Amino acid sequence: MNTYRRMGAVVVAALAATVFGTGSAQAATTITVLAGLPGSTTTSASAINAAGVVVGTSGHTGGSRAVKWSTTGVVTDLGGPADALYIGASAVNRYGVAAGSATGTDGKPRPVRFGTDGTHTVLGTLPGYDKGAFATGVDDNGVVVGQASGRSYYNRLAVRWDANGVPTALPLPPGYTASSIGAISPNGIVTGMVYAYNTPLRAVRWNRDGTTTVLPTLPGGGGTTAASVNRYGDVVGTAIAADGNQHAVRWNRDGTSTDLHDGSPHRGYAVAINDSGVTVGGLLTADGATRPIRWSANGTALDLGVPAGVTSAIPSGINGAGVIVGSTGDDSSYTHQAVKWTNS
Question: What distance, in Å, lies between the first and last C-alpha atoms of the chain?
Fold first, then answer.
């Protein structure tokens, strides 16, 4: 990872964010950069729970740690396997139980559940899936979801680990041979993607009653991916539209879908949704930057803004109070700062 100056948990700016689409409403967004562990040079925030506790990663060249930030911005190491070089937290439930991954010198990720008492559990994986596994979500009962990998792209399965850590592959709809995970809602609804050789990705929702719903494409469009689901079954992700672009999309609990695209000729995507239907994601601009976007339940888009000195920021989570977390930078730069957006 490249090195950048570590910043403290200070408020960087309070700015008037730009509203995309119709209307002239304005909203004030306070941007807070979250400090990493001592000696760290890069941080990222992955999720925030109802209480405002944030989890993510704090690291430097050659290693990283899974961390949580309190509501006041105090950072704490979540621990993890002693032999792991890279440890990160991807999700947190309402009680503070977190899920993530740990990778050692063999390069194989292992799924981890972090308890509230400082302990951790390395979760098992599926027989035959020997390339590792990682966790992306945890519900309020401590059920973890993630993905197990075999020897090829088409040898991957979305996995659910029960409260005792026992893994089960999520069922595949007819015609599909592999799956990838997105997230799990607080009450156990799971979302992700399914695919097969020479077949476009399709977003799916694994329902609490054991059924699987393949979510619709946009009219005239192509493949779809799912990233997040709320307790009512509303799913957000991306879809290739008739114009050939990747659009942010919300699949509503009533079976309809909402194209969140604002008419931009560039790619957009949605990554998280709360129980009120408020969605966050990103929109690529003409100069290659990623603007962090918040969509209201009725689809109105708001640019959240970025800290001074950077051009891109990527949201990753939102809680019921509308507090948003994510990171600055882009995936290729390996220089990130954990960020929290609070709207007023």
Answer: 35
